């Protein structure tokens, strides 16, 4: 008899987005960046493979000192305020382990990133979710939220709406525990909360390299927080969590901000054009600060759109959740991919 | 006021082995393999970087299906019995999360891998350690061990002694929880417990690619266990824990068993020769099944050996722990490195 912990036995587990088999798909379901990473990332990886890959036999820098320094300089913090991670998922996981024990509560907005729930279940922590109001504020957020952590995905996934810094400044003092602003998509937005970490002791900002830096395949994330929080996360993480190639990729990506700006502009331009075209077709498309949009057809029958596109080998994201089933989330690909998608949507009618 | 969990606040955190700055060091302190990984590993990584690194923008296979299949075929299991991981450290961590909650007990041998303790502390689990007898059995192991997990490092770190399959077959039925045989170094040994997983429901075998496959820099490990245990670990792990380059590296390394055998033979031959030479110098060197030896000088003043070698820029591992301070752990490098070390040890006298 295997005696798994009850919370592990009972939980369903997170199901990552569907990846189609075979060729010819236009993949707009995982919010991947349509452009390759900076050429300097590939150069850095190749350079690390010098001498027949001899470096790979040696452990990486357990403290990822170089990339922390680069990120710290970029964001205007001391390196003791920065931690790198194996995707921002690792940070979300370890923040729960740092602050919320079994039976402790964590909170988040529903809908938002669907991984917070499973992460809390793994820990045996309790979950409390909050809805969103029409004007994109958290519904019924208490005067003081007593939970150990509140996760705020900004821009929201999958809606794309952003929470302003003014609003985050309202929330931070109302959180008795920590407020984690999960900025996975924020590089595509006009504003971000990074500077607020100086000001609010309980504020943590997390980022991923998967979207804006086109490095979903390399699993890199980072967080900015007080040194006490970084030190706690450093205790919890596997000491060698980032491999050598991920480390040099992170460093090169952070250093090439020109390339980042160039691809961001392309994606954002395409997003604005595509959103406007969809609106002409009668869709409701609220402004998005991310590399996806949430598109609501006039008849609110989003499944029909999903299935029509699927038949054309265009994959977008449909959520059966009653809160979301009236729209589809469409990642922003290249202009050509979006033109193709638009044509297919027109044909669906 | 930051409200970290008490166990996190109180714990010291794991300190990885010292990595010297500057050039000219002979590094025999981290049990890294002196030989580069298989050339096929480097080829596979380069191939994955095709089209200007365009693949890196896409998520990796969350299920690492290809490498699980290769490992399963290699070890004679169905793929549902295999899980890949970001180093075997991730597996040790997630096994605790699967089976031991706050206040539950886990056990291990002291001395052995010094990371089990911090991993238990992160979880808030209790720790019970057991000594070793002169003939390398666990001292005072109860008729039935009631803890949730028992970790057995075989070969033992840092002593190098192996626990026979016969002994593991004795232990498995005496563990009420699971028995994890941590075979980080087992490729350098004559026997391993992999086949026993078929036989004992509560047995888990973990492996790392850091030592025998020369891939410490790539963070890859695997475990073989019943499908129920693999499924639990699959729920707990970050869904995209392995990046694309680590995945292709794992696949290529597993497929090149000829290269593995060749480097293993070189390391083991060097180990036997070096051990014999040290014995001639009066050291006690027990047989090792790993890529290191534990060498005890006649005067049992191991710190003197460590410091003498350090002065010659040869780095070995000295443990201040009273159980271990009579010896030094020396990783097996190339024949040339070990000849240099031997010469330096002779000079220390």
The Cα radius of gyration of chain A reads 20 Å
The 3D shape of chain A can be described as: globular
Name the quaternary structure: homodimer
* Average pLDDT metric of chain A: 97
Coarse structural class of chain A: alpha/beta
Cα distance spanning the termini of chain A: 56 Å
Portion in beta strands of chain A: 5-15%
The share of residues in helices of chain A is 25-40%
Biggest interface and its residues per chain? A-B, 82 and 83 residues
Q: Counting H and I runs of at least 4 residues, what is the number of helices of chain A?
A: 12
Number of strands of chain A: 13
- Which series of helices and strands of chain A comes N to C? HEHHHEHEHEEHEEEHHHEEHEEEH
Low-confidence stretches of chain A: none
**Biggest β-sheet strands, sense, barrel of chain A:** 7 strands, mixed
Enumerate the strands of the largest sheet of chain A in spatial order, edge to edge or round the barrel.
2-8-7-6-5-3-4
Can you tag this structure with a few keywords?
homodimer; about 350 residues; alpha/beta; seven-stranded mixed beta sheet; four-stranded antiparallel beta sheet; 12 helices; 13 strands; about 35% helix
What this model shows, in words?
Two copies of one chain form a homodimer. The first copy, chain A, contains twelve helices and 13 strands. In chain A, helix 5 crosses helix 6. In chain A, strand 5, helix 7 and strand 6 form a beta-alpha-beta unit. Chain A is globular, with a radius of gyration of 20 Å. In chain A, the strands form three sheets. In chain A, strands 2-8-7-6-5-3-4 form a seven-stranded mixed β-sheet, sandwiched between helices. A four-stranded antiparallel β-sheet of chain A has the order 9-10-13-12. Chain A is α/β, with parallel strands linked by helices and 349 residues long.
């Amino acid at each position: 008899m295997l005696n798994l912990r009850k919370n592990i036995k009972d939980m369903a587990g997170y199901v990552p987005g569907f990846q189609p088999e075979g060729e010819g798909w236009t993949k707009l379901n995982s919010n991947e960046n349509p452009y390759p990473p900076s050429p300097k990332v590939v150069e850095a990886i190749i350079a690390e493979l010098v001498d027949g890959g001899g470096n790979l036999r040696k452990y990486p820098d357990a403290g990822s000192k170089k990339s922390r320094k680069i990120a710290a300089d970029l964001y205007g913090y001391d390196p003791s305020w920065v931690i790198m991670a194996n995707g921002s998922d690792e940070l979300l996981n370890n923040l729960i382990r740092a602050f919320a024990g079994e039976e402790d509560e964590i909170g988040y907005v529903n809908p938002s990133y669907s991984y917070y729930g499973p992460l809390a279940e793994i820990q045996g922590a309790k979950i409390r979710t909050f809805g969103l109001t029409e004007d994109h504020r958290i519904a019924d957020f208490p005067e003081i939220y007593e939970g150990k952590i509140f996760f705020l995905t900004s821009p929201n996934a999958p809606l794309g709406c952003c929470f302003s810094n003014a609003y985050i400044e309202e929330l931070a003092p109302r959180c008795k525990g920590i407020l984690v602003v999960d900025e996975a998509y924020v590089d595509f937005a006009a504003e971000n909360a990074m500077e607020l970490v100086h000001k609010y002791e309980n504020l943590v900002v997390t980022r991923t390299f998967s979207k804006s830096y086109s490095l979903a395949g390399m699993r890199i994330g980072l967080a900015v927080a007080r040194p006490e929080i970084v030190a706690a996360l450093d205790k919890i993480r596997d000491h060698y969590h980032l491999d050598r190639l991920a480390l040099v990729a992170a460093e090169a990506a952070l250093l090439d901000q020109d390339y980042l700006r160039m691809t961001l502009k392309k994606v954002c331009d395409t997003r604005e054009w595509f959103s406007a075209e969809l609106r002409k077709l009668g869709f409701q498309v609220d402004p998005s600060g991310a590399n996806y949009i949430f598109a609501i057809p006039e008849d609110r029958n989003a499944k029909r759109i999903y299935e029509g596109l699927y038949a054309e080998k265009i994959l977008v994201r449909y959520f059966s959740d009653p809160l979301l089933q009236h729209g589809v989330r469409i990642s922003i690909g290249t202009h050509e991919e979006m033109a193709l998608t638009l044509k297919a949507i027109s044909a669906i009618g």
